[in-house]
Amino acid sequence: MSVISVLENLRSELPANVKLVAVSKFHPVQVLEEAYGAGQRVFGENRPQEFASKVPQMPSDVEWHFIGHLQTNKLKFVLPYANMVESVDSMHLLRAIDSWCGQAGTVMNILLELHLGAEETKHGFTGDEIEAILDDNGGYPHVRICGLMGMATHTSDVNAVRADFEKISGFKKKMEKAHPELTDFKELSIGMSGDYEIALEYGSTIVRIGTKIFGPREY
Prior knowledge:
alpha/beta
């Protein structure tokens, strides 16, 4: 199935309030241009240098999301171009982004990555750490905390995936109730090519879909 056909099918499936991030990492710009020609405007990358190289080759109205683990020494490749960093996964990174944007005179949209603890290799905050960040309202004036990002455990067990999405969604609702003053805290980025349909059941507002659109990665 062509990129155009897949995008058309996805748009027909996704609710109007759900943003589709086309995860284009490892794919050449020509493929991104095909998706752009089909009306896709939001793209996600997870490798800083690749991200920085693609931005100037694409039209200026593309909305870029950085979705991977970001090292603080790579901020210069990402922050000048990103509309959102979805994967803020540590205090060190949060403070570094806030500092960088403060010096640049900008504000960056971010999502806090919640780590459920099921897989030790994954990055992210604990629930307690996110609560502490949100309690410190105003402590990071150069970032706009727009919500949460999370990933389900990598498994074929659908019930396990549902349980993970339920936990992430439930935690977001808990934080919204605890912090009604955080009016930007609206986004829930859960769901990828293999599990986005389930994520939609749990209130996902952003889905990150790559393989389903572009096929296997080109390393």
